[in-house]
Amino acid sequence: MPFIVSLSMSRPYLLDVTLSVAACHLRHMYQASGSLNEATSDTIAACRVAEHYQQSLAIRSFNRALAEPFDQEGSDSVLMTSMMFNLLSFALDEDDDPSLSWVFSKAPDRLAWISLSMGLDTLLMNTKQFHDQSILRPIFDASDDEEKTYHGDGIKSLSKVPSHWLQLCGLDFASDDAEHIFYEPVRVLAELFSTPANQQSLFLYVGWFGKVGVEFRSLLEQDSEPVMWLLGYWLGLLCRFDHQWWLSARAKRDYRAIWIWLDKRKVRRRAGAEGMMWRQLMMDLEGATQQPLGIEIWTLHRPEPVEICD
């Protein structure tokens, strides 16, 4: 993107975060090569140092920029920077072991990557007046379809949402409260299930995060099972994009971690209607990585099976 170079000449935070992403990408490429030796390990370590150093520089000047009034170039610059911060927070450092996921962590900052993603949504609202003339307009346009299925104004029908998903969320087909914490997240997940995973639809998938907010994060901190399932299903959908270097490792790891977390709570063994609901939900969660037959796809990937121990 040549415009990044042009904008970053007067906005060092954009240049610094771009260099951080470049170092992160290079590190991932070396790690994915599969031929680790002493020289490669040294290179990976150097990439990691550069990645964190450039990111720290970007954060300092970015925070100052947020306190200043926006113009068109300023709006584009802070939005691009925020998007790249999100990319860096989503890209795993190196370990894809589900047991090391935030899902099983008690660290107070375990959900920091989610908080960072929510910050982008606030920035988008605060810069809305500049979006029509933005150089990021193609990204904005790619975040919805012509029918405004995924975003747009007005109440959207829940007709595509499976009944057991609605049961999990405390909704039904007659529900019309679009402000309900689960209304839009579960509706959009149902739409994404049958959305082809390709280069054009990536922003439709990642845009789901704009449907969750502070209350959703708060429930996640409290180990809410509905919230964990919804997030796990979204991560399963993201596993369809196994070509995205910054996305696929975290999606696969945390998707598997949430599946294990729910299974350890023995949700499928619960009695009565609740147990039946969870058995259906866990089947759906397992199949989230796969698209229905007959839908054009780009790449599909089912993460390796994980042995579940009681």
From TrEMBL:
GO terms for molecular function: DNA-binding transcription activator activity, RNA polymerase II-specific. Coiled coil: none annotated. Keywords: Nucleus. The keyword Nucleus applies. Pfam families: Fungal_trans_2. PANTHER family: STEROL UPTAKE CONTROL PROTEIN 2, ZN(II)2CYS6 TRANSCRIPTION FACTOR (EUROFUNG). This is C6 transcription factor. It comes from Beauveria brongniartii RCEF 3172.
